[in-house]
From TrEMBL:
GO terms for molecular function: 3'-5' DNA helicase activity; ATP binding; DNA binding; hydrolase activity. This is ATP-dependent DNA helicase RecG. The keyword Thylakoid does not apply. The keyword DNA-binding applies. It comes from the Bacteria. The lineage of its organism: Bacteria, Pseudomonadati, Pseudomonadota, Betaproteobacteria, Burkholderiales. PROSITE patterns: HELICASE_ATP_BIND_1, HELICASE_CTER. Keywords: ATP-binding, DNA damage, DNA recombination, DNA repair, DNA-binding, Helicase, Hydrolase, Isomerase, Nucleotide-binding. Gene3D superfamilies: Nucleic acid-binding proteins (2.40.50.140), P-loop containing nucleotide triphosphate hydrolases (3.40.50.300). GO terms for biological process: DNA recombination; DNA repair.
């Protein structure tokens, strides 16, 4: 049951005022939205402090009579007002003021002023204090300060929140048994209404520290309810999908799956075998698989996907693999053609290739193969989900680097079956998902983890180096080239930016070409036409090109075992998981490999704390799961989720780093609530997520 809408003037009868428009722009349309719009901080206007009792640097509210008021022009125009409270005097100093200020602060006026007190030889001073004429009783609660916009004054927003709190339907959606379990887990306010009342208008006795660090029982109640709403929506999405039908794809003895295993030039790791079995069990069921396959860079996810594809093809169905970039899609295509085409040819089947840059005739030929069913496996980019692509019998959709795709794109691929059956969905990521994130934002997915690397992968030495030692790095490159090795040099930008003042890929390419005479130095960036990109990559993969200067288009999927050195320029500009992905492009062969993180501190300054933490983490660990954990601490969940929930909110109140006890309670409570109290569960989701719950279903 949705909450009643906050009263607003109907657009049909009267246009919205500027503050009303500002409310809507902030997403504050329902009474419950306003009730859940919580203060950033609080101001204590509940007591008056006498000047004789104040301490330097303290935030105080004083009350006194104006004994002097004048505008001075010493250096700059300023308003100076002397306030006497009977125990001492204080100067109120304003560098920005209006005639109305002077009128209110006229000699003889009794005024309340609040701000940070500063004491010196010239007496006490308040710089730009908040002030008003004294009168009326002091507030009995702390004054909330809300997140707002220029068009929405605090006074208007405070009044709107007070009204919304009175009108909002805040009936309890937590059944008594679940609430009792929550109270055993944490100290929480007994009701949601009480929690909101405390958070909007805490009494002067409330602990400001507990309110600010969100450990107060009122905060604990809100965070628990928010996490429960998220878990409920995920569980509901999973339940709805489980009610759909998918093709049953049993593993056939002696079929393509066994044939591929027999022809692979390497043995699977124990982790690959384990996740392969989990996927095979899913495919054999009538319920659509919705599984996330996570594994560190180079852990061998592609072969697991190929084995899953053989199961679908053996059962007479088609499979589609979608990758975010043409380079990554081409990498998959080469591997899969090498592994599968010899097995598919006797069956009259093919692997099709589909990208946006294909010529019309070649594209049409691929579309015909897909529509006829001759293409048992289709590999491509976003082109795979375009309207003109019609599958004959699609049973399995594989999505690589799933965080690069939005909800609509995944839904479009799921809609390609053309019938009443839903395809099985396997999403892959080389960015390991931290446990708390898997428990929350990915709660609707089954997660398989490849937690070991294939044998023969060489460890990568990571060095953090200042840009001032650039010449030494170029010498290191020359040494690697002399040993017959190849090198990546990654830049963060293509064009010069005056704001960021970064070296661009084109300038670096020219610099290295000049510094390394006789060496073929290539340039690769996202704005190059596809044929040029393909030509450059072919030269590098083939070993003719010694150095590849690139933007992050090589972040995923490029596999050149002979490349032994990765230089990342302006490494401080990259996210932690992106740095880890880039580092994974080397160390793929037998040669000792290194990654140089070249950083540039601001002129005369130091790197920011976040950048230092990222570079430190890269130097200290190669474990993708540890990298992911630290990335979650540094950047929050957005880095991992990508476009998974386009338009849906990240957690507003709960913090996955500190609220794991509440998350554990919500995970246990959600299925019980759906089973025993479905109406309350629906009301709870509507209250907290509204229409945004739909984004969690893909």
């Amino acid at each position: 049951m949705a909450e009643p809408a906050a009263p607003a003037t109907s657009s049909a009868s009267k246009p919205l005022s500027a503050p009303q428009k500002a409310l809507h722009k902030l997403g504050l349309k329902r009474d419950i939205d306003l009730a859940l719009h919580l203060p950033l901080r609080y101001e204590d206007e509940t007591r008056i402090v006498q000047l004789r009792d104040v301490r330097n640097g303290e935030l105080v509210q004083i009350e006194g009579t104006v004994t002097h008021s004048e505008v001075q022009y010493r250096g700059r125009r300023q308003l100076l007002v002397t306030l006497d409270d009977g125990t001492d005097t204080c100067t109120l100093r304003f560098f920005s003021f209006y005639p109305s200020h002077q009128k209110t602060l006229a000699v003889g006026a009794v005024v309340r002023a609040r701000g940070e007190i500063r004491g010196g030889f010239a007496g006490y001073t308040l710089l730009h204090p908040a002030f008003k004429l004294a009168g009326g009783e002091l507030p009995t609660a702390l004054t909330p300060v809300y997140p707002t916009s220029a068009q929405l004054p605090q006074a208007y927003l405070r009044k709107a929140v007070v009204g919304a709190l009175k009108r909002a339907d805040l009936h309890e959606t937590l059944p008594p048994p679940l609430l009792a379990g929550l109270q055993r887990t944490a100290r929480v306010s007994p009701t949601l209404r009480e929690a909101l009342q405390v958070l909007h208008h805490p009494g002067p006795e409330a602990s400001l520290a507990a309110l600010e660090d969100r450990s107060h029982p009122a905060w604990q109640r809100l965070k628990a309810e928010e996490l429960l709403a998220q878990q409920l929506s995920q569980a509901l999405a999973k339940r709805e999908r489980d009610a759909l039908n998918a093709p049953q794809l049993p593993l056939r003895r002696g079929g393509l799956h066994e044939q591929l295993l027999a022809t692979l030039p390497f043995a699977l790791t124990a982790a690959q075998r384990r996740v392969g079995e989990e996927i095979a069990l899913d495919l054999a069921r009538r319920v659509p698989m919705h599984r996330l396959l996570q594994g560190d860079v180079g852990s061998g996810k592609t072969v697991v996907a190929a084995l899953a594809a053989t199961i679908a093809i053996d059962a007479g169905w088609q499979c589609a693999l979608m990758a975010p970039t043409e380079i990554l899609a081409a990498q998959h295509f080469r591997k899969l053609v090498g592994w599968l085409e010899p097995l598919l040819e006797p069956l009259g089947k093919r692997v099709a290739w589909l990208t946006g840059g294909q010529k019309k005739k070649q594209r049409q030929a691929m579309l015909d193969l897909i529509a006829s069913g001759e293409a048992a496996l289709v590999v491509g980019t976003h082109a795979v989900i375009q309207d003109q692509v019609v599958f004959q019998r699609l049973a399995l959709a594989l999505i690589d680097e799933q965080h690069r795709f939005g909800v609509a794109q995944r839904l479009a691929l799921r809609g390609k079956t053309g019938g009443t059956l839903e395809p099985h969905l396997l999403m892959m990521t080389a960015t390991p998902i931290p446990r708390t994130l898997a428990m929350s934002y990915y709660a609707d997915l089954d997660v398989s983890t490849i937690d070991e690397l294939p044998p023969g992968r060489t460890p990568i030495v990571t060095k953090v180096v200042s840009d001032q030692r650039r010449a030494e790095v170029v010498e290191r490159i020359r040494s690697q080239l002399d040993q017959g090795r190849q090198v990546y040099w990654v830049c963060p930008l293509i064009e010069e930016s005056e704001a960021l003042d970064l070296s661009n890929a084109t300038a670096t390419h020219a610099e290295l070409s000049q510094a390394l005479p006789g060496v073929l130095v290539g340039l690769l960036h996202s704005r190059m036409p596809p044929p040029e990109k393909k030509a450059v990559m072919s030269l590098f993969v083939g070993g003719q090109m010694g150095v590849l200067v690139s933007t992050t288009v090589i972040e995923v999927g490029v596999d050149v075992p002979n490349a032994s050195l990765m230089v990342i320029e302006h490494a401080e500009r990259f996210g932690l998981s992106q740095l880890h992905q880039l580092r994974g492009r080397v160390g793929r062969g037998a040669a000792a490999s290194a990654c140089v993180l070249l950083y540039s501190a601001p002129e005369g300054g130091r790197l920011g704390e976040t950048a230092r933490e990222r570079l430190r983490a890269m130097a200290e660990t190669h474990d993708g799961f540890e990298i992911a954990r630290r990335d979650l601490e540094i950047r929050g969940p957005g880095e991992f989720l990508g476009a998974r929930q386009s338009g849906a909110p990240l957690l507003r109140f709960a913090d996955l780093a500190t609220d794991t006890h509440l998350l554990a309670w919500a995970r246990e409570a959600a299925p019980l609530m759906l089973e025993r109290h479905p109406a309350l569960a629906e009301q709870h989701i509507a209250r907290w997520l509204g229409s945004k719950a739909e984004y969690l279903k893909a």
